[in-house]
Amino acid sequence: MYYYIQHAPIRWPEKEKHGLSVSEEAKSLIIGLLEKDRKQRLGQKNDVDEVLSHPFFKNIDRDMLLKKEIPAPFKPEIKSNVDLSNFDQKFVKLDLEESLVPDIGV
């Protein structure tokens, strides 16, 4: 996986195949944040101001965002402290042993 992170191009979902698409502004933001050359990466030159100045965020009031005054567009309903209904069931149904990180004795 590390090789793919370092060398593979970003693959975008296809509307016809996956039922969703990514806007050009979102693609530009993601490409900028995942730029392999850290000196060219979005945010490298002017930190968070550079990121928040990206066209993807043009309709968001920066001051309200930083003050946490913008309501979340989706708030999951949580029925209890062990409610897993918001997680993909294929992962919830995995045997516990499949999701544990092996003990390396540290």
Q: Would you write up a description of this structure?
A:
This protein starts with a helix and ends in a 7-residue tail after the last helix. It has a single domain (about 1-100), classed as Transferase(Phosphotransferase) domain 1 (Transferase(Phosphotransferase), domain 1), CATH 1.10.510. It has helices at about 1-5, 15-20, 25-35, 45-50, 60-65, 90, 95-100. The protein is built from seven helices and no strands. It is mostly helical and about 110 residues long.
Main features:
extended; 7 helices; Transferase(Phosphotransferase), domain 1; single chain
Summarize the structure.
The protein has 106 residues and is an all-alpha fold. The chain has a single domain (2-99), classed as Transferase(Phosphotransferase), domain 1, CATH 1.10.510.
Number of domains: 1
Q: Please count the beta strands (DSSP E, at least 2 residues each).
A: 0
Report how far apart the termini are. Answer: 24 Å
For the residues shown, what is the average pLDDT?
Answer: 89
Largest sheet: none
Order of helices and strands: HHHHHHH
CATH class: Mainly Alpha
**By CATH's scheme, which homologous superfamily applies?**
Transferase(Phosphotransferase) domain 1
Please describe the topology of this protein.
Blueprint: H1 2-7, H2 15-18, H3 24-33, H4 47-52, H5 62-66, H6 89-92, H7 96-99
